[in-house]
């Protein structure tokens, strides 16, 4: 149970928390020599449509340790000068990890290191997001399936015993990474490293139950960011569940001045979870709680149920914060009939075809 709780604490608090900086930094002009070298981050979850200079020489190194049953993904090197916002910082191009086995991904352990393996503060990671290009999101088929993310707090995503995220050999996992450096220290040749324990499908061990990441967004199936007016405000959106199953638990994501996430099954007229944020005296977000349904066997959803996600903000700045908010309930869904889920498989759009395109189709 302790590991299970940590898993959802990660989802609720670390997937998007770094996005606060996006709303609060002032965009900077590109540095000289960077004009014409632009990279566009895609995906209707993080920073869709934002153009950045491309960081040169950043590659993905993937190592599979069959004896330890781990994959280590390493993105870098990245040079991070001090006091540099995410709009000014040259950003890594998206990388693609091609999975080399059939099985389940069990956990994600992110960290930042330098070339010698010494730790680099998580504060320089704006966000990273992993997308399975071979599968559609089960709630929003216009999107690729978003399987993992992290922000500056770099919280560990622990294993959920008995469950795993199913992958097939040659699945392509796109890794989007955005960095910045709000600190006074320069970090040269930094690397994002994510260790992923896995279980092979051919191993002489009991198979895992398949889980599907569930993203229930106040922007429904669109880009997650939206403007926050001054004072108190509420925004909500709906998605329709297409499969019978259970939600194992739910956490939430808000930005600064966010106060509450509410998830409702309006078809059944039931509140799934009310998540009250913890904020400091300035209204800045500190954490969002996690609600688990494990002891009850999960919260039951039926195909056709309409889920409503609502986010409440209280913005004390006296001004509108452009793209200053997100409101997302995040959990794991286990379908009643997993044999229906292969319908989520999608045709790959290779990275050379993606230039200038959104991944929301």
Features:
45% strand, 361 residues, single chain, 2 domains, mainly beta, 7-stranded mixed beta sheet, disordered C terminus, Jelly Rolls, disordered N terminus, 5-stranded antiparallel beta sheet
How are the secondary structure elements laid out?
Elements: H1 2-14, H2 20-24, E1 38-40, E2 51-53, E3 59-65, E4 70-80, E5 95-98, E6 103-105, E7 109-113, E8 125-136, E9 144-150, E10 163-167, E11 172-179, E12 187-200, E13 209-210, E14 212-217, E15 226-228, E16 231-240, E17 245-254, E18 258-265, E19 270-276, E20 278-279, E21 285-287, E22 291-292, E23 299-301, E24 306-315, E25 321-325, E26 327-335
Parallel strand pairs: 10-13
Antiparallel strand pairs: 1-2, 3-4, 4-12, 5-11, 6-10, 6-12, 7-12, 8-9, 8-11, 14-26, 15-25, 16-24, 17-22, 17-23, 17-26, 18-19, 18-24, 20-21
Concise account of the structure shown:
This protein has 361 residues and is mainly beta. Helices cover 5% and strands 45% of the residues.
